[in-house]
# Entry
Amino acid sequence: AMATMDIIKYAGGSPANFLDVGGGASADQVKNAFRILMNDPAVKAVFINIFGGILRCDVLATGVVAAAKDLQLKVPVVVRMEGTNVEVGQQILRESALNFTIANDMKDGAQKVVKLAGGAR
# Structure
């Protein structure tokens, strides 16, 4: 989580906070994590940076899609996933008809989220 915050700072952003959902998170726990994040008015965009080892990328994507639909997210969401079931996770995001931005790596994701949040501060 700290490396993600550092790379966002390096890209010119100012992270509002971070959340580590942990390895055994369910789709519902991911959705609840979004609920917590959206209560912070300083959040202008969300960068999900995950290596899906224990937490599979398809489970994460299912939770992200559910959160975006249920909470009617009004902020951009950038997702960088690597690991178990990454292709399935990316497919879930693409087929959701929601406006997720998929990043190729941490640097790409940090640059995209800073731009979508309104640029460097």
Residues 2-116 form a domain with the Rossmann fold fold (CATH 3.40.50.261). The chain is about 45% helix and 15% strand. The first strand starts at residue 46 and ends at 52.
